[in-house]
Amino acid sequence: MGKYFGTDGFRGEANVSLTYEHAVKIGRFLGWYYGKRLDKKARIVIGKDTRRSSYMFEYALCSGLTASGADAYIMHVTTTPSVSYITRTDGFDCGIMISASHNPFYDNGIKLMNSNGEKMDEETILEVEKYIDGEIEVPLATKADIGRTVDYVAGRNRYIGYLISLSKYSFNGKKVGLDVANGAAWSIAKGVFDALGAKTYVINAEPDGLNINTDCGSTHIEHLQKFVVDNGLDVGFAYDGDADRCLCVDEKGNVVTGDHILYIYGLYMKERGKLLNNTIVTTVMSNFGLYKALDKVGIGYEKTKVGDKYVYENMVANGHRIGGEQSGHIIFTKYATTGDGILTSLKMMEVLLAKEKPMSELAEPVVFYPQVLKNVRVKSKPEAQNDPDVQAAVKKVAEELGDTGRILVRESGTEPVIRVMVEAESDEICEKYVDSVIDVIKAKGHIA
């Protein structure tokens, strides 16, 4: 990770840690960089979510891009995966999404994508940061070289058409609930489900710039749970602010997490001979219950660091077709280069219709193990993590748990914190083992 950009873009509170000036500079650099590198006028597409500050950042980016000679194509309010799709299918040099995903409205972010719709490579990100810090000079375009803005709402419409084309079944007769989180899915999801024949019920679809993710969407799924039960729906889907993640609710009101989704669709792929390498890619934070369920049906798995960026990199490197996170970032590499919440919901509808089973029955084999996670603020993450006595304590817990649970000790990527997590058959067992490791960290003097 760089100075400004993390694993999911440059994110911070609008006009505090991520400012209008930052956005102008990002646009200035990218407009010049792609024009210079490709020896032509750069074409860059931009999307945004519904936050109040997204409009400010959109104009700032356009100002910087056109001042450096690029043409900026504006998709307006749309989802992160739609920008990724249009970037790679319509021949753009770069894609930009303005969103802070599931964060509150006062935060925002700038996500950069390469011409394949993938997250921008680290080398280019570091060059952007050098320009932000004044280490690189970028000339202003003049005369006919100055860029222009182009309304590109047609790109969003084409993405909607693409999603509709992926469904193998009519949704006629199915009652589906959608929580669009007052975010980017607001302008897309209902139209897709309506076009496929569903009786669509939508909540939290009145964005005002201030209510994105507020007590709604995938981070507050309890409202969709109640809505599904109260209205007798077959299934519900909840998205986050930029709709790159999806969680489900079954007909009984139970939450179907990203781990459940990986199991349900992974097994469906295996049964049809479509699960390449017989492998699903997860992060280390997937629940132990997922791995037990996969073991029972003979599906292999790989574990990456936390972050859909690492999941995707593993999938591309090894040719795997499905991967994701418990939070609902699910990647289907046959169809997309990023997590796509609406696509995920369509794929879950496909399994539900193909198997003619309710969602509760499809998810039943994944039994979540109790989990206890505690954060310990330390003086030095590497010293605490690599302390021989701490490692010995972790090893002892792992040996005592055996195949009845697991322990995970990892460093926070953003704070001076060590995270100690245990999954086991009861909360009491989890607490006991987590505390046993923390006691060693304390005894060795690592606590800040």
Q: Please, could you describe this protein's structure?
A:
By secondary structure, the chain is α/β, with parallel strands linked by helices. Helices cover 40% and strands 21% of the residues. The protein has 15 helices and 19 strands. It has helices spanning 20-38, 52-67, 80-89, 122-132, 153-166, 189-195, 222-230, 258-271, 288-296, 308-318, 341-355, 359-363, 381-386, 388-401, 427-443, and strands at 5-6, 9-13, 43-48, 71-77, 94-98, 107-113, 149-151, 175-179, 199-203, 235-239, 246-249, 255-256, 279-283, 300-304, 322-324, 330-332, 371-377, 406-411, 417-423. The model has no long low-confidence stretch (mean pLDDT 96).
Q: Calculate Rg over CA atoms.
A: 23 Å
**Helical amount among residues, as a percent range?**
25-40%
Distance between the termini: 24 Å
Structure annotation, total helices: 15
Would you identify the regions where 5 or more consecutive residues have pLDDT less than 50? Answer: none
| Mean pLDDT reading | 96
What percent strand?
Answer: 15-25%
Q: Enumerate the strands of the largest sheet in spatial order, edge to edge or round the barrel.
A: 1-2-6-5-3-4-7
Shape category: globular
Number-wise, the strands total 19
Biggest β-sheet: count, sense, barrel? 7 strands, mixed
By helix and strand content, what is the structural category?
alpha/beta
Q: What are the salient characteristics of this protein?
A:
15 helices; 40% helix; alpha/beta; 448 residues; 21% strand; 19 strands
Compile the SSE list and pairings:
Layout: E1 5-6, E2 9-13, H1 20-38, E3 43-48, H2 52-67, E4 71-77, H3 80-89, E5 94-98, E6 107-113, H4 122-132, E7 149-151, H5 153-166, E8 175-179, H6 189-195, E9 199-203, H7 222-230, E10 235-239, E11 246-249, E12 255-256, H8 258-271, E13 279-283, H9 288-296, E14 300-304, H10 308-318, E15 322-324, E16 330-332, H11 341-355, H12 359-363, E17 371-377, H13 381-386, H14 388-401, E18 406-411, E19 417-423, H15 427-443
Parallel strand pairs: 3-4, 3-5, 4-7, 8-9, 8-10, 13-14
Antiparallel strand pairs: 1-2, 2-6, 5-6, 10-11, 11-12, 15-16, 17-19, 18-19
